[in-house]
């Protein structure tokens, strides 16, 4: 995984999650059970109790709503330490788990690509093709798939409704509409679509300048 400062920052903060007692209170780094109390970094790192209270609050993880912090401009992380590197974003929601016992899962590409590059997930965690991955809650709880980050550097898996956020019938309608649209487009593309399997789902990639906030 390429080095990314934003991921590092999220990692640093989220690593404190297990020890945060409740909203607005953060354990000192030396006492959080994660950092080495005798290590040289302890005197250099900003204490979470100093850094986090001014950020938009949350009720889970490290008590910061990071998406809100980003969207409201409270934090403005650099996309990369390499200025020449392209800032890739994709505004495309994926709906998973349309027929399960839980509400359906809406996976927002945009909220992820505001923090992460495509290569953080594609292709080693997920093939970039809808339905091509056997995503399961069992594997997620084992720290795979979504669980590589959620519960580690992003909000914890106990926040069921932040992923399982859309009623099944509503998600089924949205996916049916997307599929109808794709079928129409590939019919219009004719033979070209038949030979190019990716063309029916061309995503809209936004570059760094076409910011959507
Ligand atoms: C980080 C996102 C995320 C969180 C948080 C999460 N899930 Fe899931 N869950 C998923 C995904 C993704 C799937 C698999 C979707 C599919 O079937 O393709 C799934 C599948 C499931 C399934 C199997 C399908 C179904 O609906 O019966 C159950 C049950 C489930 N989750 C329960 C939970 C419960 C309970 C919690 C909270 C304790 C939870 N999940 C938290 C993402 C999440
Ligand atoms: C946090 C992880 C993550 C990141 C980052 C990510 N994706 Fe995805 N992507 C997914 C998941 C999950 C799916 C759905 C896979 C499935 O349904 O099995 C997906 C699906 C796709 C698809 C298929 C869409 C469709 O309708 O068939 C494309 C294309 C894609 N991603 C492109 C990208 C691009 C381009 C980027 C970067 C701008 C990106 N992704 C960043 C996780 C990610
Ligand atoms: C490579 C790391 C990574 C993976 C893999 C990943 N996420 Fe995330 N996700 C993040 C980060 C970072 C955030 C933003 C910080 C936060 O909200 O805690 C986030 C935020 C979210 C949000 C909140 C969006 C919002 O607008 O508030 C949802 C929902 C979500 N992820 C679902 C999923 C699901 C479902 C999967 C698996 C299909 C997944 N994520 C896989 C890193 C990841």
Description of the molecule:
With 213 residues, the protein is of the alpha+beta class. The protein folds into 2 domains: 1-85, no CATH class; 87-213, Cytochrome C3, CATH 3.90.10. 29% of the residues lie in helices and 8% in strands. The chain has a 3-stranded antiparallel β-sheet with strand order 2-3-4. The protein has a two-stranded antiparallel sheet with strand order 1-5. The radius of gyration is 20 Å and the shape is globular. The model is unreliable at 5-23, 197-202 and 207-213 (pLDDT under 50). One heme C (HEC) binds at residues 10, 66-67, 105, 107-108, 111-112, 115-116, 120-121, 125, 135, 145-146, 148-150, 153-155, 162-163.
Give the CATH level 1 class of the largest domain: Alpha Beta
Give me the number of helical elements: 8
CATH superfamily annotation of the largest domain: Cytochrome C3
Bound molecules: heme C
Tell me the count of domains: 2
CATH architecture of the largest domain: Alpha-Beta Complex
Assembly of the depicted chains: single chain
Percentage of residues in helical conformation: 25-40%
User: Largest beta sheet, briefly?
Assistant: 3 strands, antiparallel
Number of separate strands:
5
Q: Topology, please?
A:
Layout: H1 5-14, H2 48-51, H3 66-71, E1 89-90, E2 93-96, E3 104-108, H4 109-113, H5 137-141, H6 160-163, E4 164-166, H7 168-189, H8 191-195, E5 205-206
Antiparallel strand pairs: 1-5, 2-3, 3-4
This protein binds heme C (3 copies).
One heme C (HEC) binds at residues 88-90, 94, 107, 109, 112-113, 116, 118, 120-122, 126, 128-133, 135, 201, 203, 205.
